[in-house]
Amino acid sequence: MRGFTKAARALLLAGCAAFAAPAAMAQAPTLRVGMAAQDVGRLDPHFAVSTIDRVVVAWMFNGLVRFRPGSINPAEIEPDLAERWETSEDGKTWTFHLRRGVRFHGDFGELTAEDVVFSIRKAATAATSAFAADFRAIEAVEAVDPYTVRVRLRENVPTLLGLLTNYSGGYIVSRRAVEQRGADFARSPIGTGPFALERVTPNQSAELVAHAAYFRGAPQIGRISYRFIPSDASRDLAFQNRELDLNYGRGDQTWVNRTRQLPNVTVDVFEPGELAVLNLNTSIPPFNDIRIRRALAHAINRPEIARWRGPDVSREGQSLVPRGYLGFTADNGLPQFDLARARALLAEAGHPNGITIRVIHTQLPEMLATMQVIQQQLRRAGITLDLQVVEHATFHQQIRQNLSPLVYYSAARFPIADIYLTQFYHGRSIVQTPTAVTNFSHCNQADAEIDAARLTTNREEQLRLWAEAQRKLIAEVCGVPLIETLLVFARRSNLDYGYELRGSMSLGPLITEATRLR
Amino acid sequence: MLGFVLRRLLAALPTLFAVLTLVFVIVRIVPGDPALVILGDQATPEAAAAVRARLGTDQPLWRQYIAFLGAAATGDFGSSMVTNRPILAEVSAVLPHTVDLTAASMVIGIVIGIPAGIWAALHRNRAIDVAARLLSLLGLSFPVFVSGIYLLLLFALHWRWFPVISNADLDDPLDRLHKVLLPAVALGLTMAAYITRVTRGAMLASLSEDYIRTARAKGVPWRRVVWVHGLRNASIPIVTVVGLYVGILIGNSVLTEIVFNRPGLGKVIVGALNQRDYTMLQGLMVIYCFLIVVVNLITDLLYGVIDPRVKQT
């Protein structure tokens, strides 16, 4: 009888909690976020490639593991959907033990190993994922039991946990939802994250609601209204008018200074920094002559560009890999600013009166403004850039067709040297080849080091090889690093993330169960 | 009347066909690959090929063209290549906002523009006329992204009468009215400037006609001479300008939509263009073309109302 009473009381309490949770959610505040975008694209996390999509999918999905909120340090990756894991001695077999009782949004039930296997296979397939190439090393994924997943690798990768974290292809989706919804999954996604998508109003907003059954606890914020406001001026006015709590900022010192002067506003500047590089096509004139490449490298005044962009939001690029990435080295012999040397090299290469180079560049204001500063710097050394300004999608297509001998490219990647070096400087990634990614320089001199570093299990050797690769590529002047620009968001001071925001791989602040509006 | 409408709609079919063909060709001539937009900058050629196969953009152009024409003929606009959302759903979600803005701007333009034009014509070369001409020149020269920001600074930030984000709740008529007012003023003032100038010119021409002199000689009151005899005969160019301008407003109010954070057809068109969303662009152009045909039809019908001789021809 006593047992029955206890059970009845427990049931009653559970019932009350179930009814109380939605009521509490209804009263929980709405977070209003302003984003510089016309519209959201695809919310299937394996197709979320733009900043606007990446920011919002991070609130809806989890990976097997995750970066500690506020950090992008791979050394601080911690359990998420998997509560623990082990690896075989050769490092090629990984077994993940899933957390029990993790619920998907809506009525899509509990997460099981089948969902994880399905998600990893989906992420690794070119037809169903934009990140399939990252998963090339995975040979097989299988469900050992409903709560255990085994991953077998063909070859070692620098970090398998990096692939399975809450970033790009690492997000876990509901198998049933993908199969039921088909192509519609891209606009009605189902994950396990703290927030679930309620609806998308085209060109207006994405509305999210708290996931009451979230495994880390019900979020303290009831709803998120993610508003698409492409005009910087209008978005700033809306933020100033208290119609937004969180605002996408510009990597621009003037903007930061102006926004910091607003009452009760905090400006967060955080990692990852986007490294801007001038990639020089070494296979065609004029940059097939290393003297001209060196002349250009000596004509670039990095401190001046960083001062122009602003000390709070930018810093000098020091290598062909962004600072802070695992494997980065500043000890690489990077050519320093020296106008006399630049002019002498140019004369030596047969251009004593200077040289004109036709360059295709995007009309995106931030990239165009930086390129105009570079244009002025190079002019001082006798290098004239004839800028052909085209629309952004055209720019992306034309630079992949080798139509520009110089390509200004700014990017952030997973913070280990391997990804950056492979995508931008490995022979396999040269544009207009069957395995092309973004190697615009056509350099392949460091392929051996990049490949060896990927396969070795000795961390010190790996770091040495990555450093050697950077030295080789810089000696060949495959690219000239410019500046790194950090991410900027402004928030009303009553918005407390629940963690210290130093970095976010989703390119926007993570909104977690602990985030609150005071 | 019905026969006239049907004839006009039939006559619009070749125009529609030409527009469809042009849009199909132009969006494909413009460089840029939808697969790259979907996959982002880390796309491999293999992944891009898979996406092109799924979208059908790897098919020969003639096959894509036939499929497109066939679908358009059955009213099937398909789904967006990039977001996969049905095009009709996307358009119907924003169309009420566009109609609100266009109608409100038109009302503001007409209410200010016609009286100002008449007033200027009646006071030709006097201070009022000069002021009206200067103000209309100012209205034409002030781009909406400047006037819009000033309006927001004054009415939203300083006096707090209006919100900066003007995306109205379509189920709430008062909210719709409240949020359309400021953007409609920004657009309507430019339209008023056009209408003022056209009305002034048409009225000056009309008031110098013999029938006006005759009416005045017969002792018809001056007010009646101006509003009935003068304005009615000056109305054809005014209606033409309003019709043309409304057509422009439907698709080209994108700057106003961006500055005031309103959803709208213009914003969808520009978004589709930036993303090389061929199917969305094609669907939007068909709908836009249809709306222009309807606006032109209404304009033609109004000609008949204003001048019965038009109906006879």
In short:
The complex is a heterodimer of chains A (518) and B (313). With 518 residues, chain A is an alpha+beta fold.
Strand portion of chain A: 15-25%
Uncertain stretches of chain B = none
Q: Using DSSP, what is the number of strands of chain A? A: 19
State the CATH architecture of the largest domain in chain A: 3-Layer(aba) Sandwich
Instruction: Provide the structure class of chain B.
Output: mainly alpha
Strand content of chain B: under 5%
CATH architecture of the largest domain in chain B: Orthogonal Bundle
Family (chain A): Belongs to the bacterial solute-binding protein 5 family.
Domain Solute-binding protein family (chain A): 76-428
Signal peptide (chain A): 1-26
Subcellular location (chain A): Periplasm
Q: How would you summarize the topology of this molecule?
A:
The complex is a heterodimer of chains A (518) and B (313).
Chain A: H1 2-27, E1 30-35, H2 51-57, E2 65-67, E3 77-79, E4 82-87, E5 93-98, H3 113-123, E6 138-145, E7 148-153, H4 160-163, H5 175-181, E8 195-201, E9 205-210, E10 223-228, H6 232-240, E11 246-248, H7 253-260, E12 265-280, H8 290-299, H9 302-309, E13 314-316, H10 339-348, E14 355-362, H11 365-380, E15 383-390, H12 392-399, E16 406-411, H13 417-425, H14 447-455, H15 459-475, E17 479-492, E18 495-496, E19 516-517
Parallel strand pairs in A: 1-10, 1-11, 14-15
Antiparallel strand pairs in A: 2-3, 4-5, 5-7, 6-7, 8-9, 9-10, 11-17, 12-16, 12-17, 13-17, 18-19
Helix pairs in contact in A: 8-10, 13-14, 13-15, 14-15
Chain B: H1 2-29, H2 34-39, H3 45-55, H4 61-73, H5 87-122, H6 127-141, H7 144-158, H8 173-207, H9 210-217, H10 222-252, H11 254-259, H12 265-274, H13 278-306, H14 308-312
